[in-house]
């Protein structure tokens, strides 16, 4: 049926009507914050407020930190495509969301797609499932587990790191230059794989070792398709279902499973005696009381716990190592003071406890994670309507709430001259001045990162081994400004490179 007497006029009118309907659908939520009297940043059709992330000009953490800086009130509304999200800037409200009133915000707002391995991974679980899996996973991430099960792997990886640096320096063509992002990656692969699988990864010795391939498959930021999938899980859950996206690269997941179950077979047959997370998982799987109290660990559930550990311990550790060495190169006096403390480590000591008590090393670690937080932003889903104390505002059930760690850590109100690297912020005299809730590199509250104890000790061991016998310096003045990788979903160096000059002492 024609609207006009001419098909040439009807076709453009029909297309125009379709465009108007599409625009109305895509912008249907854009007045959400206005109707509630909450300030918001004007969104764009199709992308909301995250156009820089979709164009890979900023990583999500940088984008949210930019919103934080531009916000001049306690909170501001933004949009993920068409989904309303509340960015909280007020510190007390952020503490309520994360800690005090956590029972209203127990879930992460990540995507969940049935059939994907992520449905059994702790960060992506919700409700009672999350509580149960957190309860039985907690011992595997405890301080005692790091000390008894994983610390020896870190020390072994540290020895491999030292040998690698020596070999590089012996090669005159290297000119003493080492990519510290790659150095951190190899250390982390050796340390994490030994801790998870109880076997040697040989990451420093074999460029194309199976475990380095596995890590690259999970963290290949140059792969735009992979980055899109990960960003969708974190920021655009609807796209995950619509497009059938996988959190882990299918080839990397297949490789991980193959290695995992080959090692399970070896351990079952007594062919491998290493001690790692995999041994704990196998013990749980055989234990009838564990199945009755928690869950029957089938193949996918077992692998998911190992992948969770791998993800939690690997990439954040890698980047923090490279950032810390970069700041040591930029700040020679800090480097020398840290080296002096390292030189005083006595032989034949309980090394784990001694490293844990090293004051200046801890200050350097904390200042590194203050300036470059491994978790630059985090989200929480409101699981029941929440009335904001002291106001009439209600955060509705299902609303996603963002908190910007990168924004808070670099806010001059909390950390004067935040661009300066100053470990003295965390000295015994000054640490009491830090306002509660302003330093949370691994998030805070019930959903804080379970791998933080492992990651903290890993970075400290890597720094000790990197600086004990070597001086590190910048290659040239062009390195005075650190740029972040805009294609990554966490804070890490641009182009996966932090090339520094090493000198044997």
> Can you give the mean pLDDT?
90
Strand order of the largest sheet: 1-2-7-4
N→C terminal distance: 87 Å
Number of discrete helical segments:
20
Oligomer category: single chain
User: Can you write the helix and strand succession as a string?
Assistant: HHHHEEHHHEHHHHHHHHHHHEEEEHHEE
Largest sheet: 4 strands, mixed
State the total count of DSSP E strands: 9
Runs in which pLDDT lies below 50 for 5 or more consecutive residues are none
The radius of gyration is 24 Å
Strand share of the residues? 5-15%
Please state the overall shape, judged from the principal axes of the Cα atoms.
Answer: globular
Description:
- α7 crosses α8, α7 runs parallel beside α20 and α15 crosses α18.
- The chain has 505 residues and is α+β, with helices and mostly antiparallel strands.
- A four-stranded mixed beta sheet has the order 1-2-7-4. A three-stranded antiparallel beta sheet has the order 3-9-8.
- The model has no long low-confidence stretch (mean pLDDT 90).
- It is built from 20 helices and nine strands.
- Helix content is 50%, strand content 8%.
- β1 and β2 form a beta hairpin.
In short:
The chain is α+β, with helices and mostly antiparallel strands and 505 residues long. The protein is built from 20 helices and 9 strands. The longest helix has 32 residues, at 299-330.
């Amino acid at each position: 049926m024609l609207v006009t007497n001419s098909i040439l006029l009807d076709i453009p009118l029909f297309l125009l009507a379709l465009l108007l309907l599409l625009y109305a659908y895509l912008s249907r939520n854009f007045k959400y914050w206005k109707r509630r009297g909450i300030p918001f940043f004007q969104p764009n059709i199709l992308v909301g407020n995250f156009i820089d992330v979709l164009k890979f000009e900023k990583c999500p953490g940088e984008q949210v930190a930019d919103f934080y800086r531009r916000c001049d009130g306690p909170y501001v509304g933004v949009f993920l495509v068409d989904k309303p999200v509340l960015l909280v800037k007020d510190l007390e409200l952020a503490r309520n969301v994360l800690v005090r009133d956590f029972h209203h915000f127990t879930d992460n707002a990540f995507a969940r797609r049935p059939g994907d391995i992520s449905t059994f991974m702790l960060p992506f679980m919700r409700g009672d499932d999350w509580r149960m899996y957190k309860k039985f996973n907690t011992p595997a991430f405890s301080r005692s587990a790091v000390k008894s099960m994983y610390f020896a792997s870190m020390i072994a990886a540290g020895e491999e790191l030292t040998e690698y640096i020596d070999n590089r320096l012996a090669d005159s063509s290297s000119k003493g230059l080492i990519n510290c992002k790659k150095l951190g990656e190899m250390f982390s692969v050796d340390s994490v794989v030994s801790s998870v699988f109880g076997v040697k990864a040989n990451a420093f010795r074999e460029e194309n070792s199976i475990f380095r391939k596995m890590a690259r498959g999970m963290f290949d930021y140059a792969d735009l398709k992979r980055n899109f999938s990960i960003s969708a899980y974190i920021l655009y859950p609807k796209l995950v279902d619509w497009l059938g996206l996988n959190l882990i690269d299918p080839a990397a997941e297949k490789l991980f499973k193959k290695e995992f179950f080959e090692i399970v077979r070896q351990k079952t047959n007594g062919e491998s005696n290493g001690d790692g997370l995999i041994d704990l998982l196998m013990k749980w799987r055989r234990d009838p009381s564990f199945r009755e109290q928690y869950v029957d660990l089938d193949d996918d559930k077992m692998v998911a716990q190992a992948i969770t550990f791998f993800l939690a311990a690997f990439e954040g550790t890698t980047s923090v190592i490279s950032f810390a060495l970069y700041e040591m190169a930029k700040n020679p006096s800090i480097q020398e003071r840290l080296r002096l403390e390292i030189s005083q480590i006595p032989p034949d000591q309980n090394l784990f406890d001694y490293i844990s008590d090293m004051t200046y090393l801890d200050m350097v670690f904390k200042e590194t994670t203050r300036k470059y937080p491994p978790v630059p932003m985090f989200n929480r889903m409101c699981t029941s309507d929440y009335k904001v104390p002291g106001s009439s505002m209600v955060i509705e059930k299902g609303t996603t709430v963002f908190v910007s760690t990168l924004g808070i850590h670099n806010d001059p109100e909390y950390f004067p001259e935040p661009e300066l690297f100053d470990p003295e912020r965390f000295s015994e005299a000054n640490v009491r001045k830090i306002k509660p809730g302003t330093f949370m590199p691994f998030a805070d509250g019930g959903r804080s990162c379970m791998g933080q104890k492992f990651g903290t000790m890993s970075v400290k061991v890597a720094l000790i081994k990197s600086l004990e016998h070597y001086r590190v310096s910048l290659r040239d003045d062009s390195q005075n400004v650190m740029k972040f990788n805009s294609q990554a979903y966490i804070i890490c160096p641009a182009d996966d490179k932090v090339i520094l000059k090493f000198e044997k002492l």
